[in-house]
Amino acid sequence: MMAYELLQYVDSELPEAYRTMSGEELDRRILEAKRKLGKDLVILGHHYQRDDVIRFADFRGDSLKLARLGAEQKDARYIVFCGVHFMAETADTLAGEHQQVILPDLRAGCSMADMADLEEVEEAWEILTERFGDTIIPVTYVNSSAAIKAFVGRHGGTTCTSSNARGVLEWAFSQKKRILFLPDQHLGRNTAYDMGIPLEEMVVWDPKSGKFEEIRGDLGAVRMILWKGHCSVHQKFTEEQIKSWRERIPDINILVHPECNFDVVQNADYSGSTEYIIKTIEAAPAGSKWAIGTEVNLVQRLANEHPDKMIVLLSSTMCPCLTMNRIDRPHLLWALDSILDGTPIHVIEVDEETKHWSKKALDRMLAIK
User: How many domains is the chain partitioned into structurally?
Assistant: First the structure.
């Protein structure tokens, strides 16, 4: 069991004093704690984080970018990660020995990362390698636990981001005939299809049933084995939503994340990572119209930052990352106060063996040109 998993069971409840504090006092005390801690502290804020929290971040970005930035702040003894648990694990994997990584609320998990359980992955690997022999290389999206990254590292595989997935898959296919892609089936399918791999050469592995799904052709010709996992936020976007916006506003641009399902990505005008989405909007001409299929906090922030463009959420219902939103100002202040008191709470520690192999997987990715 990972250190994070052990810690979450002893997580104490947020003290009442923080629950009843006014917004003004929370803001004042967070800023005062940051001032007192100075260079000893760096706060990292993921793009999906709520606005009232991310305003205190020293750096904004996606999970891997933030983890690397945290490690680069050599003066910082404390890295407070306003994100979710797998992000904090990656930050601890890359951090220096003198640095501690803190997650303000241990309940901030990731349903996608949790869909790839180490025991299930090891069991699947045994079955798949028995069937296909030594023809498979594992690749995991960085949105996975340190345990899964370590599994991939031990088996000669690597990690990928939504930005570099294509390059990573090209490298992986140069190593072996087949890829086991974890844990998000949609990113794997969408990326492979863009590379010219037909759906007939892809299957989904269901760890619950221990069987293949979506078999469209001969299993012997399969090149992509997709783990049955998904992002609960991006799963909510549909073809019908795209059709509805185009009927109402014919010149609207549909921009989605590749964690959306295949039909949504195929029907969108543009698809790309969070950074791609941000840069696309920044470069878009004034007066242009955009419906974006990604997390609502980011979409709303982009709309506020670019009032010269029409920017709306693709879905008619809110699509927040609920676990990310568990990080709020009371929990952030509690974490900062605990550092000032000399007893940091919610420290995320990845054991040394897991850290070693997880870093191997990350380093392989970083070496891919």
Answer: 3
Q: In this structure, are 145 and 241 located in the same domain?
A: no
The one-letter amino acid code at 69 reads L
The residue segments making up the domain with residue 239 are: 234-313
Burial of residue 150 (number of CB atoms within 10 Å: 0-12, 13-18, 19+): buried
Which strand (E) or helix (H) includes residue 290? strand 289-293
Q: What is the CATH number of the domain that holds 101?
A: 3.40.50.10800
Write out pLDDT tens, residues 264-322. 999 999 999 999 999 999 999 999 999 999 999 999 999 999 999 999 999 987 666 77
167 and 272 housed in the same domain: no
d(CA 206, CA 89): 26
Element holding 42 (H helix, E strand): strand 41-46
Q: pLDDT tens-digit profile of 181-193?
A: 999 999 999 999 9
Apex 246 CA angle, 241 and 249, nearest 5: 120
Length of the chain (residues): 369
Tell the residue number behind the tokens 């981001």, with chain if given: 161
Last residue of a domain, one of 232, 251, 283: 232
Whether residue 322 contacts residue 330, with contact meaning beta carbons closer than 8 Å, is answered with: no
| pLDDT value, residue 319 | 67
* Single pTM value for the model: 0.91
